[in-house]
Amino acid sequence: MNRPYRVVVAKPGLDGHDRGAKVIARALRDAGFEVVYTGLHQTPEQVVQAVVDEDADALGLSLLSGAHLTLVPKIMAQLAAQGRGDVLVVVGGIIPERDVPVLLREGVAEVFTPGAPLPSIGAWLEAALDRREARQAL
Fold first, then answer.
1. Looking at the domain assignment, is residue 1 inside a domain?
2. Is residue 106 assigned to a domain?
3. Domain holding 58: CATH number?
4. Nearest to 42 by CA among 28, 27, 26, 21
5. Counted domains in the chain
6. Dist CA 63 CA 39 (whole Å)
7. Cβ(89)–Cβ(75) below 8 Å
C-alpha cells in the first residue's frame, strides 16, 4: 500500500442488515485502510457527503435490498456532480449476476458477491488504488 487509503463503507437505502458491511469494514481496517462506516439507512446524498467530508479514496456500498440499480446510479451521478468522480466505487451484497454488467457500465469498479474471500477484497482494493495513484503521478 503506497499510503493508508481512506474508504467509506455505506449502507444506502432501507436495508436494515449491516453485519456484512461491518465485517468488510473491519477486514479493510485490519488490512491497513482507514475506514469510515456510515451506518444504516443512508440516502445517496448522505453517502456522497460522507465521501466528500472524509476525502475518501474509495467507497464501498453494501446492498442487500435489491435497490442497487436505483441507488448506485444516483450515488455515481452525485459523486460526479460534487467533483468526486475520481472515487473508486465498489459494490457488495446480494447482486444478481445479470446486474453486474449494468453496475460496471455505471462506473462501479468491481462487484463482490457473497463468498468473496475477505483478503481478496482488500488486496484487490489496495492494488486498484495503487494503480490509480501511479497513473495520477504521471
1. no
2. yes
3. 3.40.50.280
4. 21
5. 1
6. 13
7. yes
* Band of pLDDT at residue 3, cut at 50, 70 and 90: confident
Span 71-111, pLDDT tens digits:
999 999 999 999 999 999 999 999 999 999 999 999 999 99
State the DSSP string of 64-133.
-SS-HHHHHHHHHHHHHHTT-TTSEEEEEES--GGGHHHHHHTT--EEE-TT--HHHHHHHHHHHHHHHH
Q: What is the pLDDT of residue 77?
A: 98
Question: Which residue's entry shows cell 453485519?
Answer: 19
Note if the pTM is more than 0.90: yes
Q: How confident is the model at residue 136 (pLDDT cuts 50, 70, 90)?
A: confident
Exposure b/e, 35-50, CB count within 10 A at least 16 = b: bbbbebebebeebbbb
What's the mean pLDDT in 31-54?
Answer: 97
d(CA 97, CA 79): 25
Residue pair 96/63 in contact (Cβ under 8 Å)? The answer is no
User: What residue numbers bound the domain in which 28 lies?
Assistant: 6-137
